[in-house]
Design a protein that fits this description.
Number of strands: 8
CATH architecture: 3-Layer(aba) Sandwich
Number of domains: 1
CATH superfamily: P-loop containing nucleotide triphosphate hydrolases
Radius of gyration: 14 Å
CATH topology: Rossmann fold
Strand order of the largest sheet: 5-6-2-7-1-8
């Protein structure tokens, strides 16, 4: 199922940094919007489990995720439904609920996001990661290893 759900994704781009507050989610959102403006089919996978801000940035925080035969259907953003988005923010009872999980549960959800989301045909999947260099990053890279990974964008500040 994992290979099937990502089979239509041509390129995967990780957005990461060594610390929080540098603008990873903003850059992920702007990159997705710019690619969409260029005519590309785009998805965003928000694996920042403790701070899922992209649903709010794209004004879809009250949306719900649905199931289909292939797994979870991502939320489609905008009037033209041009950007597919999956985030833990859609799975919480309230958007501001805290996620306080240990590593194994976080890692299992990341693997589930990679294997169980029906992305369809995408030119780019942007993966917004949490701050730092934690288990979530290792789990994400390991889960995506069998797929063509275009690369990573490292967000820094001039400090």
């Amino acid at each position: 199922a994992e290979r099937a759900n990502l089979a239509g994704v041509r390129h995967i781009v990780l957005v990461l940094s060594g610390k929080g507050g540098v603008g990873k989610s903003t850059l992920s959102t702007e990159l997705a919007l710019a690619l969409r403006h260029a005519g590309k089919r785009v998805g965003i996978l928000d694996v920042d489990l403790c701070g899922p801000s992209i649903p709010r940035m794209l004004r879809v925080q009250d949306s719900a995720v649905h199931q289909c035969d292939s797994g979870w259907v991502p939320v489609f953003v905008g009037q033209d439904k041009a950007i597919a988005l999956m985030s833990i923010g859609f799975l919480l009872e309230r958007p501001d609920d805290a996620v306080v999980w240990r590593g194994p549960k976080k890692n299992a959800l990341i693997k589930q996001f990679v294997s169980d989301v029906a992305w369809g045909e995408l030119d780019f999947l942007i993966v917004d990661t949490p701050p730092g260099t934690s288990d979530e990053h290792i789990s994400t890279v390991e889960a995506l290893r069998p797929h063509q990974l275009l690369g990573a964008v490292l967000v820094t500040t001039p400090q």
